[in-house]
Write a structure and sequence with these properties.
315 residues, Metallo-beta-lactamase, Chain A, eight-stranded mixed sheet, five-stranded mixed sheet, 13 strands, MBL fold metallo-hydrolase, signal, Metallo-B-lactamas, RibonucZ/Hydroxyglut_hydro, NDM-1-like
Length: 315
């Protein structure tokens, strides 16, 4: 496949249900985009379910070229995709991929690890636990829905586990790992480059699409994480799906989720049903937020119902 360079100024069933509402572009060129000095992205043009046409590639990959190797953030959803990522990286640098970060345990972000088996693979201990529990099922599912076009994937698990936020230097590049309080899934981690003020968010951060709330996520943890990111004041926000974005998107998501959570909690305590809350929120929020998301109309309903379920669990 042709590789171009241009310059610019989820995994569980719940994730797949969310994604099926998104549009799908089946162009499968691995285009490397220069984000900042030595920072690059490969943005998936496919937003939706894994299919035979997109060969399972439906998530973004980002990487940093350091003085002594490449630091890769997420590896895609198959060994085949991982190898295509490796080929794309070689169009930029001859440096080997020495370090890999798995942002979380959903299959579309780590099943490509097998292409980087010689690297140090970093994830949270919580994410590893989930990977080991569901990894084989995830491979089977992706193979089924793509009709085998993902090829053969061997499971390669992270070999360096994080249990708390920390700082580390990779080839002269200072990096901070931020835990997302299980905001999207158990053990989410984000990566922050303080010198360049770039945040790598995985599925904790969003650009074109509504925040990715899942049944095993923590809404308050997500809101708190978004507010933490806002205080960092990033100039560039790199997400797990969709286009490169800015701080404005993080503020948007924090405000939306805070408003919805507050209304759901109030209405639940007053005995209202999800549909009643949804009607009230549509009146309050649609004019402000519908133009800001490609999937507001479909996702606001799911998010409200999910937040009601969280309220029920807490009572």
């Amino acid at each position: 496949m042709g590789i171009k360079v241009k310059i610019i100024s989820f995994f569980s069933l719940i994730i797949l249900i969310v994604q099926c509402a998104w549009s799908t572009n089946t162009n499968s060129n691995f285009v490397v985009t220069s984000i900042a000095e030595n920072v690059y992205s490969i943005i998936s043009p496919s937003i939706g379910l894994p299919t035979p046409e997109n060969k399972g590639w439906n998530s973004n990959i980002h990487f940093v070229v350091t003085k002594s190797g490449v630091l890769l953030f997420d590896t895609g959803s198959s060994e085949l995709i991982g190898n295509k990522i490796k080929k794309a990286i070689k169009s930029i640098t001859n440096q080997p991929v020495r370090w890999v970060v798995n942002s979380h345990s959903h299959a579309d972000h780590w099943l490509g690890n097998a292409a980087f088996a010689d690297a140090e693979i970093i994830a949270s201990s919580q994410a590893l636990e989930t990977m080991k529990k569901y990894g084989q099922d995830d491979v089977a599912f992706y193979s089924k829905v793509t009709k085998g076009t993902i090829g053969t994937t061997h499971l390669i698990y992270p070999n360096l586990l994080l249990n708390y936020p920390q700082k580390r230097t990779f080839g002269g590049v200072e990096v901070e790992f931020i835990f997302a309080n299980n905001g999207h899934s158990h053990g989410d981690i984000l990566m922050w480059l303080p010198e360049q003020k770039i945040i790598f968010g995985g599925d904790v951060l969003s650009s074109d699409w509504m925040p990715m709330i899942t049944s095993d996520g923590n809404v308050l943890g997500l809101i708190n994480t978004l507010n933490t990111i806002i205080k960092l004041n990033p100039t560039i926000v790199l997400t797990g799906h969709g286009n490169v974005t800015t701080l404005k998107s993080v503020i948007r998501d924090a405000n939306l989720l805070s408003s919805v959570w507050k209304q759901v909690k109030l209405d639940y305590n007053n005995g209202l049903k999800p549909n009643e809350t949804l009607l009230n929120l549509r009146v309050k929020l649609v004019s402000k937020y519908e133009p800001l998301y490609k999937d507001f109309e479909t996702e606001i309903d799911r998010i409200v119902k999910l937040m009601y379920q969280f309220q029920q669990k807490n009572h």
